[in-house]
Design a protein that fits this description.
single chain, alpha/beta, five-stranded parallel sheet, 5 helices, 5 strands, globular
Length: 163
């Protein structure tokens, strides 16, 4: 096991402005993803493996990661609701000789919508987008046939409200 701590890379981290406020715009999102991909290429070099955190906004990805992240891994914390979105990360990890895993937060859409509504206004995702992402993920759930060494499905009961 590596002596380094788990590293988290997230496009969201690149959307926080100088004042510490989450600032969303199409241009900033595009740049945030470019920055996160570049960061991932650097830190993955030193890691044992890549773990993709998959789930819709409000699923509990960041919360799960804070409690369960392991040393030696790089975690990419993003929605990644479709197989095409995940494929680039499988390709990257393989090109670096690293195994890639998935932790899929399978949370009922009603729970995600409720959690999202409880976020500060600058962090809320429009409800129709949350529902659209949930639909996409239900049609394209992560599977080992995508090239993952392991898919861990974490289910949340429909009665859960807090993260």
């Amino acid at each position: 096991m590596s002596t380094s701590l788990a590293i988290v890379v997230s496009p969201d981290a690149h959307l926080v402005n100088e004042a510490g406020k989450y600032e969303w715009s199409p241009t900033r999102v595009k740049q945030a993803w470019e920055n996160a991909r570049a960061e991932l290429r650097v830190v993955l070099y030193y890691a044992e493996r890549l773990v993709l955190m998959v789930g819709v906004p409000g699923a509990g990805k960041s919360t799960w990661l804070a409690a369960n992240g392991e040393q030696g891994a790089v975690y990419f914390d993003a929605t990644l609701t479709g197989d095409r979105a995940r494929a680039e990360f499988v390709t990257l990890a393989r090109s670096m000789g690293k195994p890639v895993e998935v932790v899929w937060l399978d949370t009922p859409v009603a729970v995600c919508v409720a959690r999202n509504a409880g976020r500060t206004p600058d962090r809320q995702v429009p409800e129709d987008i949350v529902r659209s992402m949930a639909d996409r993920l239900s049609r394209f759930p992560p599977h080992v046939r995508e090239g993952f060494t392991r898919v861990t499905r974490v289910t949340t009961p429909s009665t859960a409200t807090g993260q």
